[in-house]
Amino acid sequence: MPRRFFRHGELPLVLLALLEARPMTAYELMGELARLFGPRYRPSPGSVYPAVDALEDENLIHGEERRGRTVYALTDDGADAFEERREALAALELRTGARVARDDSLEPLLARFRARVVPLAGRVDPDTVAAVLDRAAGEIESLNGQGNEEDA
Q1: For residues 54-76, b (16+ Cβ closer than 10 Å) or e, as one string?
Q2: DSSP states along 97-127
Q3: If you write DSSP's letter for every residue of 19-72 in order, what string do you get?
Q4: 2.40.10.220, 2.40.50.140, 1.10.10.10, 3.40.640.10: which CATH number matches 10-120?
Q5: pLDDT of 48-80, one tens digit each?
Q6: Beta 24-25 vs 61-66: how paired, if at all?
Q7: How far from chain centre, in Å, is Cα 123?
Q8: Which residues does 116 contact at the CB level (< 8 Å), separation at least 6?
Q9: What is the DSSP letter of 83?
Q10: Which terminus, N or C, of the chain has the lesser number of Cβ atoms within 10 Å?
């Protein structure tokens, strides 16, 4: 029996993340899932449409008819639910190698970093980790050096 690609609760979480980026039809969601996770995962109407229906039943997304198609968007509750589970999405991204959440903030990247590093607690020297993080922060700050010098 083949292993399931998504673990419990991950498909709805990915759907919320995709709808955070922009409203889409269920068909468009299937296309995005195929683009992000293919060929290891092939979305089917039998899994995606029930997940979309469940999210709508939970008032996490809302469907609106446009030109004969239902376009789904996050509700305020859906946006809150997504934010509460951003670290779970980061863990999924690490496991699959796909980058689902895309925005201009550093939050998704920091959540992904946290998902990788937190399990190492107690197995690495905190002082060494602090030094590595300080160097990394310095490198990231230097990326801003191309902008306004007054920010330094």
Answers
A1: ebbeeebbbbeeeeeeebbebbe
A2: -------SSSHHHHHHHHHHHGGGTTTS-HH
A3: HHH--EEHHHHHHHHHHHHTTT----HHHHHHHHHHHHHTTSEEEEEETTEEEE
A4: 1.10.10.10
A5: 999 999 999 999 999 999 989 999 999 999 999
A6: unpaired
A7: 27
A8: 94
A9: H
A10: N
